Amino acid sequence: MSASARPEGEGEAGGVPARPARRARSSRAQTNVALRWLHTYTSMISLLVVLFFAATGITLNHPDWVFGSGEVRSELTGTLPAGWITAGTVNWLTVAESLRADQGLKGRAGDTRVDGQEASLSFLGPGYSADAVIDTATGRYSVNVLQQGGLAVINDLHRGRDAGTAWRWVIDVSGIILALVAVTGIGILLYLRRTRAQALTVMGIASVIVVTLAWRAIS
């Protein structure tokens, strides 16, 4: 059969219909697709982040709530090994590591001080503090330990208080991801013709209310 006699709609090989050429997406459509993709995956990543910071935001706003906020106080005593102080200069690394090993202290060591016959050092962590007071003449020490309940721990994690560098990075990255979720959500909204006007109106009203309440709170 000659090429001119082929049935209409058949391609060049074996009578397979030729596919119509795909029309290229406009830049507007490509932007919409990219926003939806980014919004979807940042939202999936941030689900637990949103849940954690939402829940702890409520507990922070209600410091009078007492569930899970029990405190345990204890006092520990002991003597530091020789060499922790030389000619009035304290080797704080030796002190901190000795206290950690002997008394199981945790958290970030800091707030060091030497004042005549007394030296002091604090260990701080989320919902945790330990204040050590040391006799510079004898090396004997006492440590007052405060361990708060789970509610205080998660509240301190929300604030990033005494949580260390790694957790500060978690907070920063979480903030960036949540900002992306918000920005891409607004971007997608701009493409929804039927609900765009109503949604932007609601967002505008809510923004005015929040700004007004914030202004009243700081006035």
Report what the structure shows.
- The protein contains five helices and seven strands; from the N terminus they run αβββαββββααα.
- By secondary structure, it is an alpha+beta fold.
- A five-stranded antiparallel β-sheet has the order 1-7-6-5-4, covered by helices on one side. A two-stranded antiparallel sheet has the order 2-3.
- Helix 1 packs across helix 3 (150-159) and helix 1 crosses helix 4.
Features:
219 residues, alpha+beta, five-stranded antiparallel β-sheet, two-stranded antiparallel ribbon, 5 helices, 7 strands, elongated, disordered N terminus
Nearest-integer average pLDDT:
82
Major sheet attributes: 5 strands, antiparallel
* Major β-sheet strand ordering: 1-7-6-5-4
Our Rg estimate from Cα atoms comes to 32 Å
- Choose one word for the global shape: elongated
Point out poorly predicted stretches: 1-5
Task: Kindly state the percentage of residues in helix.
Answer: 40-55%
Beta-strand portion reads 15-25%
Compute the number of helices. Answer: 5
Distance between the termini: 89 Å
Could you give the count of β-strands?
7
Q: What order do the helices and strands follow?
A: HEEEHEEEEHHH
Look at the helices and sheets and give the structural class: alpha+beta
